[in-house]
Amino acid sequence: MTTPPVDVLPDPALLIGEDRLTTSSGGTLQHRYAATGQTTREFPLAGAQEVDRAVQAARAAVPVWTALPRDQRRRLLWRVAELLRENAEELALMSVVENGMPLMLATHNPAVTADLFEYNAGWADKVGGAVEPSWPVPALDYSTEEPYGVVGVIIPWNGPLASIGMVVAPALTAGNCVVLKPPELTPWTSLRFGELVAQAGFPPGVLNVVPGGPEAGEALTRHPGIDKLHFTGSGLTARHVLAGAQQNLTPVSLELGGKSANLVFADADLPAAVQQAVGGLVQLSGQTCLCGTRLIVEDSVYDDVVQMTASFLDHVQVGDPLDPQTVMGPVVSATAADRIMGVVERARGESRLVTGGTRLDGDYADGYFIAPTVFADVDNGSHLAQNEVFGPVLSIMRFSDTEDAVRLANDTPYGLAAYIWSSDLQRTHRVAAQLQAGNIWVNGFFGIPPSMPFGGVKQSGFGRIGGRDGIREFTRPKNVWIAL
Ligand code: NAD
Q: Which residues carry out catalysis (predicted)?
């Protein structure tokens, strides 16, 4: 196993206004490298005091940021994108050390975030408002899109840089100042991002970065100085976020988990469908929110798809995340590995294990490696099919006709993403219209383009990030009516 390049990690300091805090009320935490379980560096955790300081710094920066001419805001956002690209190699290595993401995947990350900043920079001088029709008396009625003020952003550990691009970029573009709280498992890329924002020339306090755990998260959700909250994470924590936000009736948007259906019809390009299903399973060891974890296959091709899935997985290289050939690395922590193995053990009694189902041993025993795991003949009512595993575990089940496929796909509390594979164009449109999901991909998946509105329905959350809707999420209309 390659030794992690710990020297790429940024200074462990909270970024609040112009201050760099190396001690904090939340104590310290030792970060661990998921591939070996070894400690990397210790860092200070934000407590309620630092969150309060960060909110004050952001509040002080609001008049400065909103007064900055739009073209200057645009240039600053664009400069962040340039700096992300200039520091891409270092950020990619940092992502590997941070959560065990394979280098192959981490290499794309900085460019994806840079794309999102460039896309949003383009809106910075265009977001404005509209003139509304007005009657019965002559009047000028116009709406402006105003920023909220200070936005609290809570992100998960699975892709901090991606979350930053999806959420922080539009929040800043819309004219807000931000307090970003990365999780305690993965502080590094967020801290480095904060340094790059300062280097780009942003006024101090426009972005503040306070890594921490539940204490910092709760302090942010309950803080009266927060005008809007955006939370990305699990449904369980989202309930705490909503409970905290109700104190000040702070508006919240939620990006939560999923149990997304991947529907494969008999007339589909089966190798392409299976390749994408396997890609989703192994990408970041199944720790992505929009993974198509329920592969729902038409009866007549079911056995072929199960067999093809197992053979595709035979060729997936699992192991050292720093080896550029590695496709799948470890899961994020020992706790996550134990939890996922608990789900696997329970599923053994309920479904047919096709492949995997074990922790990796030998050289991998000290890291948090789980073999990519496939269960077939899964009952959609089972624990495995109804709960987000957030690990490399795929459920395969069968459907008899289109109506059955749609029923199974929608039979879940979640509604984040769905995938359809079929060469019948009319059917794909019909099925897409019936699926309860915020985002649907047909016959392929190439990530989330910056212009795409992204988000869930049902218990996968509410609100949208991405595209024009993503900026709207961080503004509120103010209407002015003038009698003429
Ligand atoms: P999590 O809910 O455990 O943690 C998310 C964040 O909430 C972290 O920053 C954590 O420190 C913070 N937090 C913990 N307790 C808190 C509290 N009481 N109050 C406020 N904040 C608190 O989720 P996770 O394990 O970090 O991430 C995995 C989950 O995130 C999965 O469900 C996944 O599907 C979801 N996710 C969703 C999207 C999306 O865009 N829909 C993207 C990535 C991940």
A: 255
Local structure of 139: helix, strand or coil: strand
Q: Comparing C-alpha atoms, which of 371, 378, 369, 375 is closest to residue 356? A: 371
The residue whose C-alpha atom lies closest to atom 14 belonging to ligand 1 is: 214
In the chain, what are the domain boundaries?
Answer: 6-256+461-483, 261-449
The one-letter code for the residue type at 100 is G
**Tell me, what's the pLDDT at 329?**
98
Ligand 1 lined by 24 (C-beta under 6 Å): no
Cα of 484 from ligand 1 centre, angstroms: 51
Distance 158 CA to ligand 1 centre (A): 9
- Strands 28-32 and 177-181 turn out to be unpaired
Query: What average pLDDT does the chain have?
Result: 98
Ligand 1 nearest atom to the CA of residue 221, by list position? 20
Long-range pairs of 87-96 with CB within 8 A, sequence gap ≥ 24? 87/192, 87/196, 88/114, 90/8, 90/192, 91/161, 91/189, 91/192, 93/5, 93/8, 94/8, 94/9, 94/10, 94/188, 94/189, 94/192, 95/160, 95/161, 95/189, 96/4, 96/321, 96/322, 96/329
Half-sphere exposure of 231 (CA within 13 A, CB side): 30
pLDDT digits (tens, 9 = 90+) for 229-276: 999 999 999 999 999 999 999 999 999 999 999 999 999 999 999 999
Query: What pLDDT shows up at residue 377?
Result: 98
14 within 8 A of 25, measured Cβ to Cβ: no
CATH number for the 261-449 domain, one of 3.10.20.30, 3.40.309.10, 3.40.50.620, 3.10.129.10? 3.40.309.10
Nearest CA owner, ligand 1 atom 16: 214
Tell how far the Cα of 34 is from the centroid of ligand 1, in angstroms.
18
Give the Å distance between the CA of 455 and the centre of ligand 1: 15
Which parts of the chain sit beneath pLDDT 50? Answer: none
For 72, 197, 253, 341, 399, the CA distances from 387, given in Å and listed in that order, are: 46, 38, 22, 14, 20
User: Residue 8 contacts by C-beta under 8 Å, 6 or more apart in sequence?
Assistant: 90, 93, 94, 97
What is residue 438's predicted lDDT score, i.e. its pLDDT?
Answer: 98
Instruction: Say yes or no: CB of residue 241 within 6 Å of ligand 1.
Output: yes
**pLDDT one-digit tens code per residue, 421-460:** 999 999 999 999 999 999 999 999 999 999 999 999 999 9
**What pLDDT was estimated at residue 129?**
94
Cβ of 221 closer than 6 Å to ligand 1, yes or no, is: yes
Name the amino acid, one letter, at 278: V
pLDDT recorded at residue 387: 97
What's the pLDDT score for residue 321? 98
User: In CATH, which superfamily holds the domain spanning 6-256+461-483?
Assistant: Aldehyde Dehydrogenase; Chain A, domain 1 (3.40.605.10)
The per-residue pLDDT for 181 is 98
Active site residues per annotation: 255
